[in-house]
Write a structure and sequence with these properties.
By secondary structure, this protein is an alpha/beta fold. Helix content is about 30%, strand content about 25%. The chain has two domains: about 5-25 and about 155-425, 3-Layer(aba) Sandwich (Rossmann fold), CATH 3.40.50; about 40-135, Sandwich (Immunoglobulin-like). It is built from 14 helices and 17 strands. Strands 10-11-13-12-14-15-16-17 form an eight-stranded mixed beta sheet, with helices on both faces. Strands 2, 3, 5, 6 and 7 form a five-stranded antiparallel beta sheet that branches. Strands 1, 4, 8 and 9 form a four-stranded mixed beta sheet that branches. The longest helix is centred in the middle third of the chain and has 19 residues, at about 250-270. The protein is globular.
Length: about 425
């Protein structure tokens, strides 16, 4: 990423507030206040069943009576679901998506609606369990409210703006800018609504090419990957570009990424994917992988033959801890990035998929002004967290800074060698059965 993590994290301090004229804190505070439901959300969980055999995935939708909008969740088959929601009044429904288009067709796709009238009144922090639904294809039940497309990031009303799922762009798209990367750090809600979080494509989907998901770092954007993308064998691989605001909690960003990939998998049916991530993006990607391995919402159907992280701060960054301590407004991601945080401690606890070849790339070129070895942004000791190293098949160091590593021919050569091995050795995940190496 072009916006260095050190600069981003230091802007969390009170001194940086003077440099920014207080603007950054005011906008971040506004967005955090608009998202107070995240601090004490209510929770709804239950199971969806269907009478007889299921011919398509199941979509569960929760409708906000106040906002007049829906939030959707796709299940590959009948089973458990979970929503974290702001306090309010809701209706819950589910339908069988027989034509796999993630849209509800009344009369042709069987549905179930909770209760009569089916409204749930949720208080802050309330947990409502056993919210169960049974879809009966022989019944005439219809969902009595408009059903929007599935997405993954919540807006200020607790529901989802349009999520980019396979929008085709150029790597030089004006949305991919340093300015917009900063917007995602200071104004995450504005970023999600005006820029567009999600997964972008650089070409039409090709079932004969393996998707490579590139995940940028803090305050970054997909354009940071321009050089490495240019070195790919595009006859074998198709680059997909994750774009997300970097202020929310990182596990939440990871869950959103899993839902976006799940929606794309339902649409295109791909069975394998490679993930390449830089800086904080490595933490987001690992949280997403962990969630895909353990989440109750989904059953893993996509193989991950290779996972590559580049200059990721696995032990966090001391500036994040200072920001949490001194800043008048704290972005949730700073809490996660503070050394010793619960988020960082839990990341290596979930094993990577058994078929996954994990490669840890780290950078170590610095100006020499710090007593601790670093890459001008992240301490080498943070990049080389021992629990993470122990899970890596390869640990490779490069005489590059935190940002120049993304423009390194040596990095490109090593990355493409890993990708080639993955392309020739990867196997498909059978439903409910992870592949074996």
């Amino acid at each position: 990423m072009k916006v260095r993590m050190r600069r981003v994290l230091r802007s969390a301090s009170c001194l940086a507030a003077c440099a920014l004229g207080g603007c950054g804190f005011l906008t971040l505070k506004k967005d955090i206040e608009a998202s107070k439901h995240q601090l004490e959300p209510a929770a709804v969980q239950g199971d969806v069943a269907i009478r007889g055999a299921s011919s398509g995935p199941i979509v569960v939708v929760v409708y906000s009576v106040a906002a007049g909008r829906t939030n959707g969740l796709v299940l590959p088959r009948p089973g458990p679901f979970f929503f974290a929601l702001p306090a309010g009044t809701y209706r819950i429904a589910a339908y069988e998506d027989r034509n796999h288009d993630l849209a509800y067709q009344p009369g042709t796709e069987p549905a179930a609606v909770l209760g009569d009238p089916g409204e749930l009144v949720l208080r802050p922090g309330e947990r409502r369990a056993n919210v169960d639904l049974t879809i009966d294809p022989g019944a005439a039940a219809r969902i009595p409210f408009a059903v929007a497309a599935v997405s993954a990031e919540q807006d200020e009303n607790g529901f989802l703006p349009d999520l980019q799922l396979g929008t085709i762009v150029s790597i030089d798209d004006p949305r991919f800018s340093d300015e917009n990367g900063k917007l995602g750090l200071w104004q995450p809600l504005e970023f999600a609504s005006s820029i567009g979080a999600g997964v972008y494509f650089l070409e039409e989907y090709d079932p004969n090419k393996i998707p490579i998901l590139f995940v940028h770092g803090a305050g970054g954007h997909p354009g940071n990957w321009k050089y490495l993308v240019s070195t790919l064998d595009r006859s074998r691989f198709q680059p997909w570009l994750a774009y997300y605001p970097s202020a929310p909690h990182l596990d939440r960003v990871g869950r959103g990424l899993v839902r976006a990939i799940g929606a794309l998998q339902l649409k295109y049916g791909f069975s394998r994917m490679i993930v390449v991530a830089h800086s904080m993006g490595g933490l987001v990607a690992r949280a997403a992988i962990n969630y895909a391995m353990t989440g109750a919402e989904t059953q893993r159907v996509v193989s991950l033959p290779a996972f590559v992280t580049i200059s990721s701060p696995w032990n966090g960054h001391s500036a994040a801890a200072q920001g949490v301590k001194r800043s008048p407004v704290v972005a949730p991601s700073w809490i996660d990035m503070a050394p010793g945080s619960a988020f960082l401690s839990h990341l290596p606890a979930t094993p990577l998929p058994p078929e996954c070849e994990y490669s840890l790339f780290f950078s170590y070129r610095s100006s020499g002004l710090s007593r601790e070895a670093n890459d001008e942004t992240v301490a080498v000791s943070s990049e080389l967290s021992l629990p993470i190293q122990l899970q890596a098949a390869h640990v490779l160091g490069f005489d590059e800074t935190h940002t120049s590593i993304l423009d390194s021919p040596e990095v490109a050569a090593q990355l493409n060698a890993i990708l080639l091995r993955a392309a020739t050795a990867s196997r498909t995940v059978t439903a409910g059965q992870p592949p074996r190496t």
